[in-house]
Amino acid sequence: MPVPVPTAEEFSRLSARVTAVERPWELVVTEGFNSDAVDAAMARALSDRRGSAAQYAVVLPPGEYHLTRPVIPASTTGRLEGLSLRGYGRRTTFVNWEASGRTLISAVKLLRFFTVSGMTVRSANAANGFADLWSTSPGSFNEGWTVSDMEFQGPWTRVFGLDGDSTANLNSEMLFDGVFTSTDSAFSDAFLRSGGISGTHNQQNQFVNYWVRDCCLTLSSGTVFRFDRGGSIRVARGSWSAASAASGPITWFSMPLTNPNNRAATQLSVRDVRFEPKAANHLVIDCRWAGGSVTFEDCSDLASAQNNAARSWNLHRYHGTDFWGSGGSMPTVRYRQHQAVGHHLYSGPAVTRGNVVYDGCYFWRGTGGQTTTATEALRWTGGAPRYRFTDCDNVPNATNIP
């Protein structure tokens, strides 16, 4: 006896019933690809909580959305923990952020353990932002964010902005996993800026922990990561590229540290990242830390930079600071198994603390693999150089650390 096949209408009713039974915790946007539909789902998620914990995940099925209002408005009150905003994957759930000079997620003293994943978001206005996080005391801050399987396209002021006043407590524990930016991405401020947006305050050194892994960060202009108040930044794997030789200026890591603090955390560790600079104004790092540590391990700057012009490029820059009034100070900088282009540069006051060590590195000097010298690979201004080269491919062993 043949098994009866349900009609399309019957199948639709069955699917809806199964969804309701098996996934009651999801608020799936089904009434349109616009702000009205998303607002309706988010309003329920924001209003129906178990204490401060979210009871629902807001889900954006495949489709192209056109949003004109923030997904989480700044007027939202009360702590909210564990909220998820999920799509079905990059380019599958496609969000057009069509507001003018506004931020899609205004997380003002609100979101902890927030997850956003599975979508492409495109800005239509260079004054737009994706998420603003504000911290003030007592107990008002954002932490524990996970940003995964995401792509950001188009022009932005900032994608992520972390800020706070003189009592700022914490904007921290941010994980970026499998995040992409497109070749037309441009950031007039930065992809992520931590501190110093509305004013620099010593207390913003509590914006500390960031983990970046398996990301593909391509852009046409701007700064990718800017940490005004330091931080503990751990980067693992990825491919980071300039869109073209005409792109720029570009800086992947900017550490200005523009006013004194106690440097509770000034740690940058970058491992297994392939950088693809294509012009002299594409900087891997511009660092003005007076202490802490910077490590690049098993990274490469070579990519498309293997041309005669690249020999003169300076993609890694460090500037010391006379912080204590007793001579210049810089971080302890370590390059291990690093494939470099051009030369690195130290500038600033004569250094009495801090140094640069190269272990098993290579500085590209043409297709013949010519050797170079320590003082050519690392150029130094402002006093005696402090460096060590050990077991490098084309730089003889050398040391000038007292």
Write up what this structure looks like.
The protein has 402 residues and is mainly beta. The chain has a 16-stranded mixed sheet that branches. A 10-stranded parallel sheet has the order 9-12-14-16-18-20-22-24-27-30. A two-stranded antiparallel ribbon has the order 2-3. It contains 3 helices and 32 strands. Helices cover 8% and strands 48% of the residues.
State the separation between the terminal residues, measured CA to CA: 91 Å
Indicate the percent of residues in helices.
Answer: under 10%
Biggest sheet architecture: 16 strands, mixed
Q: Report the structural category.
A: mainly beta
Mean pLDDT: 87
Shape, principal axes of CA atoms: globular
By DSSP, the count of extended strands is 32
Q: Report the C-alpha radius of gyration, rounded.
A: 24 Å
Beta-strand share of residues: over 45%
Parts with pLDDT < 50 across at least 5 consecutive residues: 10-22
Number of helical segments with 4 or more residues? 3
Topology, element by element:
Blueprint: H1 8-22, E1 26-28, H2 35-47, E2 49-50, E3 53-54, E4 57-59, E5 63-67, E6 80-81, E7 84-86, E8 93-97, E9 103-108, E10 111-112, E11 115-123, E12 129-135, E13 142-153, E14 155-164, E15 171-181, E16 186-194, E17 209-219, E18 221-227, E19 231-242, E20 250-255, E21 266-276, E22 282-287, E23 293-297, E24 314-319, E25 328-336, E26 339-341, E27 343-347, E28 351-359, E29 362-364, H3 374-377, E30 378-380, E31 387-390, E32 398-399
Parallel strand pairs: 1-4, 4-7, 5-8, 6-10, 7-11, 8-11, 9-12, 11-13, 12-14, 13-15, 14-16, 15-17, 16-18, 17-19, 18-20, 19-21, 20-22, 21-23, 22-24, 23-25, 24-27, 25-28, 26-29, 27-30, 28-31
Antiparallel strand pairs: 2-3, 31-32
